[in-house]
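Minutes, project check-in
Item: structure for the 200-residue chain
Input as provided by the requester:
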Amino acid sequence: MISDRQSKEREFRKEQIIKAALHVFKYNGIEKATMDEIAKQADFGKATLYYYFSSKEEIFIEILNRGWKMIWESIEPVIHDRDKPKDTFIDALNIIGSLVRNDQSLFEFLFTVPQKMPITLNEENHEWKSFQRKMYGVFQGLLEDGMAKNEFPKMRSDLLMRAIGGLFHGLFFLGNEKKPMSRQTMEEFITTFIGNYGTT
């Protein structure tokens, strides 16, 4: 049985490996990234790296599981208020925006890498897919509830979701501007895009 100190040390090492992997994935691309480079970036021997992860694909899944779980647990406290769907939508989006600002490399990975991954790593049974599906389902439900209350334009909710997602991605990942974000900024961002529907 391992002690608390050993458990914390193992978790610390896993965190170091994940940070190193994100760096390697960002600058080399996921296809060209190797376990050798990840071990070197983490300043660990290959034996230590393989003790925690058997392949770079296993590291992919660990990052995705941790990241999408963090997103879900961060927005979960605010998504129960469905009486004001537009406000809830903006609050949840603002929380995700704050998370992105705190760790942009992680979120670039979470939002872009799944499309590039082999089909076997994108299967529905992975834990991260469950959190991702729940989050997208909640956001789409908020849009539909908001349309019913005339808070969002009446159109296909999946198309509106995709459009807002694209703008959100551009806001945080394109260009060099590091404009401070707030709930007010996020509300202005959404309102500018959809027009001023309903009351504020």
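Outcome recorded: The radius of gyration is 19 Å.
No further action items on this chain.
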